[in-house]
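Propose amino acids for all 185 sites.
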């Protein structure tokens, strides 16, 4: 389910929600069937439990989209699957624009980048971030751009002959309603 519908279940369901859901279906399927670069089964299981939990899922999905922490690691999330990594990053960048606000002067990462640079460079960085958000929001006005992303990476170098390798799922101590529970070991 899209982050927007998790936050407001009375909100109208749009094609955007379905497109965003396709990202999370792809991510869940990959995380549960392909070895990833998480440090442990427990850290991967915790990420899955938090992100796909009906109670905390909206906030966790928002953090995934806006901060993209698991996609910013030194090594790709899925070591042997470059096309999958690039597709996940492209989709995440695209759906991020649906929730991110253009920087008000100096915000977030832009603020960090702006330290110690000229006023002109500061203005250009803010405009670049604002332009990127505008550009990706334009892509989301219909479903064609997202479908083209899937097609591009599936046709390009998708591992069509790769077999699923179900990943061990560890119980997670989280106490969240609707999420997995485990007794301490």
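Proposal:
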């Amino acid at each position: 389910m899209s982050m927007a519908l998790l936050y407001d279940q009375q909100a109208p369901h749009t094609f955007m929600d379905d497109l965003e859901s396709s990202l999370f279906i792809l991510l869940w399927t990959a995380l549960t069937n392909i070895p990833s670069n998480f440090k442990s089964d427990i850290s991967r299981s915790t990420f899955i439990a938090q992100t796909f939990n009906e109670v905390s899922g909206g906030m966790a999905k928002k953090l995934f989209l806006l901060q993209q922490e698991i996609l910013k690691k030194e090594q790709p999330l899925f070591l042997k699957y470059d096309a999958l990594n690039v597709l996940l990053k492209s989709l995440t960048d695209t759906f991020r624009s649906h929730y991110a606000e253009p920087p008000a002067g100096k915000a977030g990462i832009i603020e960090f980048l702006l330290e110690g640079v000229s006023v002109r460079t500061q203005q250009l960085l803010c405009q670049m971030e604002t332009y990127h958000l505008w550009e990706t929001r334009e892509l989301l006005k219909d479903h064609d751009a997202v479908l083209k992303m899937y097609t591009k990476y599936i046709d390009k170098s998708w591992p069509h002959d790769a077999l699923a390798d179900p990943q061990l799922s560890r119980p997670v101590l989280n106490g969240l309603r609707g999420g997995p529970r485990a007794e301490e070991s």
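The mean pLDDT is 75. The CA atoms of residues 16 and 141 lie 8 Å apart.
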